[in-house]
Amino acid sequence: MSNTPLAPAPVAAEHIELKARNVSFDWEDTPLHWLPGDPFAGHTINVLHLLLPAGERWFVHVYKQVLPYIKDERLRADVVGFIGQEAMHAAAHDDVLPHLKRLGLDPTPYTAQVDWLFEKMLGDRTLPPGKARKWWLMERVAMIAAIEHYTAFLGNWVLNAEELDRRGADPMMLDLLRWHGAEEVEHRSVAFDLFMHVDGGYRRRARTWATAFAALVFLWQRGARFFMENDPSLADGKASLGRFHRAGRRGVLPTTGSMLKSIPTYLSRTYHPSQEGSTAQAVAYLASSPGANGGAHA
């Protein structure tokens, strides 16, 4: 298999200047089961609040280290905008955790494990300057590109998940998810473009995708199980792949089929993130989001 860097064709019209938005969400009236009648689907989505603060702070940390390797000024500006948006995402999801604790579901045991993963297992290592240190940096840049493929996939899904509206999802939580999802779609090309700019090797891309995908599946199912088992209002809360599949068929979670199809999409040699999702749709939502325009209760 060739390891020659590829040059997939981006959709030029999809490029947009990135900026961090000051957002405000008020969780006082949001119930624990913010998706009425479906605690499993709601808690599966709630895993975002457990994973994203540590994960996106890790993104920012890694990207600050890779800035000296960027030789293209437009890409540098994109990465700086990406860093600002990711830092805001981490803070916004972090703010949900105290609310969950007040409702009787303390996320601390799980978030401590997630913090360990990103800070210790995927954090900086004591390596000599030169090839070894650069290798570990490029591995993490490639992992972020793979993870961002899935965050953009989820962002595109939630922007179009009309079943959540039909089922009466809490508008505050839905706005948080769609604001975040819209920005993931908006900046969906940055991580991949950065990887292609500083490395671009296909073997590294495929290898780190496998690592990222396995970690995401493991952490997500573990997080959903944690929420269901510790929900004080559920006598026998269980999470399973079967429940996930059925929730996807109802439209309240991504379908199993669409998630499986995303695998060959990312591994295609002609893949570029701009070929999926709609920047226009994302920008339109961001222009109307209550939380991104002066606060939900301004």
Description:
The protein is mostly helical. It is 64% helix and 0% strand. The protein contains twelve helices and no strands. The protein has helices at 39-66, 73-94, 96-102, 108-121, 131-159, 162-166, 171-186, 190-198, 202-230, 241-250, 256-267, 279-288. α1 runs antiparallel to α9. The longest helix has 29 residues, at 131-159.
Euclidean distance between termini CA atoms: 56 Å
* Number of extended strands: 0
Structural class: mainly alpha
The largest sheet is: none
Run of helices and strands: HHHHHHHHHHHH
Percentage of residues in DSSP E strands: under 5%
| Low-pLDDT runs | none
Q: Number of DSSP helices?
A: 12
Indicate the mean pLDDT.
Answer: 92
Q: What form results from the Cα inertia axes?
A: globular
**Helix content range:** 55-70%
- Taking Cα atoms only, what radius of gyration do you get, to the nearest Å? 19 Å
